[in-house]
Amino acid sequence: HRSLKLIMLLLILAGLSDGISLLIVNHGLNSWPVVNIFFIAQFVILFIVFSSEYKSRFTKIVFFVFFIYSIINYLFLQTPNSFNSNSSYAGALLMLILAFFYLYKLFHELPVERVQDLPMLWIAFAVLIYFGGTLFLFLFNNYLIANEPGTHRAIWVLHNMLNVVKNVFLSIALWKHYR
Questions:
Q1: In whole angstroms, what is the distance from residue 111 CA to residue 124 CA?
Q2: What is the pLDDT along the chain (179 residues), one digit of tens a residue?
Q3: I need a surface site. Which of 12, 130, 142, 169 has the fewest CB within 10 A?
Q4: How far apart are CA 128 and CA 125, in angstroms?
Q5: Distance of CA 8 to CAs 15, 114, 119, 164, 175, Å?
Q6: Considering the entire predicted model, what is its pTM?
Q7: Dihedral (CA of 60, 64, 14, 96) sign
Q8: Largest Cα span, the chain
Q9: Which residues contact 141 (CB under 8 A, 6 or more apart)?
Q10: CB contact at 8 A, 28 and 79
């Protein structure tokens, strides 16, 4: 199943991104370029996974507009060396919308008796937990870093906890598929 191969790729990229970011930070360098690229890659992968559930042309147009905006934001607006809060926030909103629509469709149609065995259910919950939890962190991150420097560590501890939960749920999706 192509979607689950993409989820495996996402988990690998998440581990690599976290590892590279940790090495970069430990050497006193800026890890935002890695984090920002990972957020774009994560959005693309999750969008492709969800788009297998939707055949809407509108959804694809929204994806391409967002993708182009994210690249422009990365290169020119907020630049690689700062957290790209604009595209991260917009991406979080789009992911939440996709997950809610998927869950609505799933619970309306109930294609199987035990929905908890569907890998996409776990992927949707991973998206809801992570992007729902980090939505306001993404929006206010740059402001808080500039005006409340002491909050930076707490923000990213919360982010990392949500990230771990997301990755656990994505792993459960893989397990449900292979089981």
A1: 16
A2: 788 899 999 999 999 999 999 999 999 999 999 999 999 999 999 999 998 877 788 888 999 999 999 999 999 999 999 989 899 999 999 999 999 999 999 989 888 888 888 999 999 999 999 999 988 777 777 677 778 777 777 887 888 899 999 999 999 999 988 76
A3: 12
A4: 5
A5: 11, 23, 12, 15, 11
A6: 0.89
A7: negative
A8: 52
A9: 83, 85, 88, 155
A10: no
Token readout for 95 is 């992911």
Amino acid at 1: H
Token pair, residue 112, equals 């199987």
If one counts every other C-beta atom within 10 angstroms of the C-beta of residue 42, the result is 20
Which of these, 19, 51, 65, 17, lies nearest to 37 by C-alpha position?
17
